[in-house]
Every structure is written in C-alpha cells, then in structure tokens.
Amino acid sequence: MISKRKLLFDTHAFLAFFSREAGSETIKKYFDEVQVGEIEGFVASITLTELAYIYSRKTDAATARLRVMQVQGSKLSLVPLSAEIAVEAGMLKRPGISVAGAIIAASARAAGAAVVTNDPHFSEMGIEVSGYP
C-alpha cells in the first residue's frame, strides 16, 4: 500500500491563505487535496494559539475566533503538544527560531510530515519543507 503524502501547515501558510498573499493558490491546492483525501494534512496546536493572537491584535476577537474555527472545521488533524514534542522542540530551538516555530517543527517530525511554509528556519532545523512563493 502506498502511503499518502503528509503535510503540516505552518502559521505563515494560514496567514498567506487567508490574506490571499503570494503563494495562496499553492496553499489552496494543498488544502483541497487534504479535503478530498489525496494527502494527509496536519496543524500543530500552537498554530491555533498564534492565529488567535495575530488576528485578535490585527482585527478583532470575532475574526480571530472565526479563523481558528475555520482551521478546526477543516480535515486537518490536530497535533497536540505532548511531552515528547515539547522536549523535541527544545532540542530543535536555536537563536533566531521562535519557540512556536520549534514546536511546529517538532510536531511535523512527530506526524512524519513536511511543513507548508515560506519560513527558511524549518530547513535549518532539518525539517522537510513544501514551500510556496
């Protein structure tokens, strides 16, 4: 049996998608493939925190909740922050890499997934990346 491709979506991918920034069409293609079951999609639990924080500051609490609900309502599987992921993130953390970024990287590693991102730090941590412009 051929295993499905696995992708974990970074916070930046959601921000680009929701704002229709450069690369949003590529991200939409990945989301569509997740929705129809062609690939397995994941989101790290800390990404929900980042989305809630960013949108509540940039817009308002209602928009923040809407964006989080859109992610939760998708077919993306949530990767919870376990003790193992927390420790792995601590091992991956380097100067210039946020704690959230390290947690997302460790979550991707735990899920066996590449990260959908345009952030070069993931490659620096040895994480496979599926980039977008």
Derived structural class: alpha/beta
Tally of contiguous helical segments: 7
CATH topology-level fold name: Rossmann fold
What is the molecular shape? globular
Helix amount: 55-70%
Provide the gyration radius in Å.
14 Å
Give unreliable regions as ranges. Answer: none
- Helix and strand string, N-terminal first? EHHEHHEHHEHE
Task: Kindly estimate the percentage of residues that lie in beta strands according to DSSP.
Answer: 5-15%
Cα distance spanning the termini: 32 Å
Known CATH architecture:
3-Layer(aba) Sandwich
Please identify which CATH superfamily we are dealing with.
Answer: 5'-nuclease
Q: What is the CATH domain class?
A: Alpha Beta
Number of strands: 5
For the biggest sheet, the summary is: 5 strands, parallel
Major beta sheet, strand line-up = 3-2-1-4-5
> What do the pLDDT scores average to?
96
In total, the number of domains comes to: 1
Relevant terms:
single chain; 133 residues; alpha/beta; Rossmann fold; five-stranded parallel sheet; 7 helices; 5 strands; 13% strand
Task: Explain the overall architecture.
The protein has 133 residues and is of the alpha/beta class. The protein has a single domain, classed as 5'-nuclease (Rossmann fold, 3-Layer(aba) Sandwich). Helices cover 56% and strands 13% of the residues. It has helices at 11-19, 24-35, 45-58, 61-72, 83-92, 99-111, 121-124, and strands spanning 6-9, 40-44, 77-79, 114-116, 129-130. The protein has a five-stranded parallel beta sheet, sandwiched between helices. Helix 7 (121-124) links the parallel strand 4 and strand 5. The longest helix is centred in the middle third of the chain and has 14 residues, at 45-58. The chain is globular and about 35 Å long. The model has no long low-confidence stretch (mean pLDDT 96).
